[in-house]
Specification:
Layout lengths: L12 E10 L5 E8 L5 H14 L3 E17 L3 H11 L3 H9 L6 E10 L2 E9 L6 H18 L4 E4 L12 H6 L2 E10 L1 H7 L4 H19 L9 H11 L7 H4 L3 E7 L2 E11 L11 H9 L10 H25 L4 H10 L1
Parallel strand pairs: 1-3
Antiparallel strand pairs: 1-2, 3-5, 3-6, 3-7, 4-5, 7-9, 8-9
Length: about 350
């Protein structure tokens, strides 16, 4: 079969910002690249960036960092599966030793499991340095499985991926256990700034977040998600920085929280599943390398620090776009007016 040559699919890209970020991972102002066909996204994120900068910046906290791969093994019956599983749970150091023989950066940090009948769904969780870790954790699991089968002859192989990972699917387990970088971003916007720049009040934003993001998503049957459009900013940021864009499926499972505090607006975006890296497949393109360098993610740092920096910048960008859209939707007609003006 003849192989087709690789071509390019250009997506419009624009720099937005600067976005002011404070925190241990990032403490500076950055201009952010966003690649998207939805042109109103640029000025919307830009408005969020301006408002949050005037408010003192977005506080970003990196809560956790791990990448998972679940494997599926089975025994003859449930009893044999349980005996093997209980024993395996106590052997994490030995398993990590096997991982270290095949990878310089992968480290097994935790393991979770589910048993169904005679089947064992084993979720292996790793740190993966500056890589997003898709291939790294799969390779590590591939190295572990022969060792597990040798130690436990009652078990047999079923699959290298068991959907308990869960990769590129909307599931509850990722939000509960974490997959990728877990980042919380927050900002407090003075009432006067909210009125002047967002054309709304803190009370209206809080009310809309409850009625739209929380109750609306509940009625729709959303899975561990309560936001207006995280996926928009994630896709644009992922494409601009060479990420696997399909990971916005679990990446967009995040929560917006808003409160009125002494008359001001406290606004937060929590993203527990940001799967991204600063090295690896997709990063060799010239525009990606330039964007990563401009974001300060090509510096000499400890393994993993560049990828965590990138995730924090991404999460702050998501907050900017989410804040701007929710503010617009408190005013009848504003959302459509901007789309008609910018897209037609």
């Amino acid at each position: 079969m003849k192989a087709h040559k690789i071509t390019s699919a250009p997506v419009p890209m624009r720099l937005v910002g600067p976005v002011r970020i404070t925190g241990e991972t990032v403490d500076e102002e950055l201009v952010v690249p966003l690649a998207t066909y939805e042109s109103p996204l640029w000025p919307s994120v830009g408005r969020g960036a301006r408002v949050t900068k005037l408010a003192g910046g977005i506080r970003a906290t990196l809560v956790d960092d791990r990448m998972s791969r679940s494997v599926l093994l089975e025994a003859r019956d449930a009893g044999q599966a349980l005996v093997a599983l209980n024993s395996l749970k106590s052997r994490l150091p030995e398993m990590n030793e096997q991982v270290g023989r095949s990878s310089r950066f992968a480290r097994l940090i935790d393991m979770h499991s589910q048993q169904v009948a005679n089947m064992i769904y084993l979720r292996l969780e790793f740190t993966t340095g500056d890589a997003s870790g898709h291939n790294m954790v799969t390779h590590a699991a591939d190295q572990l499985i022969p060792w597990i089968l040798e130690q436990y002859p009652s078990l047999s192989y079923v699959s290298i991926s068991a959907n308990y990972c869960s990769d590129k699917k909307a599931t509850a387990v990722n939000g509960i256990l974490g997959r990728g970088k877990y980042v919380v971003t927050e900002v407090t916007i003075p009432r006067e700034l909210c009125l002047r720049r967002l054309k709304t009040t803190p009370e209206k934003v809080v009310e809309l977040n409850i009625k739209k993001n929380l109750i609306g998503t509940l009625m729709a049957g959303g899975v561990r998600s309560a936001n207006a459009h995280f996926a928009n900013m994630l896709l644009a940021f992922y494409l601009a920085t060479g990420q696997d864009a399909a990971n916005i499926v679990e990446g967009s499972q995040g929560v917006v929280h808003a409160e009125v505090r002494d008359g001001d607006l406290y606004f937060s975006a929590t993203l527990p599943n940001l799967i991204m890296g600063s090295v690896g497949n997709g990063k060799g393109l010239d525009f990606v390398e330039e964007n990563l360098a401009n974001l300060g993610c090509r510096e000499e740092r400890e393994p993993g620090e560049n990828a965590r920096r990138l995730a924090v910048i991404c999460a702050a960008t998501v907050l900017c776009g989410e804040l701007s859209l929710l503010a617009a939707q408190t005013n009848p007609g504003e959302l459509m007016e901007s789309h008609l003006k910018l897209e037609r």
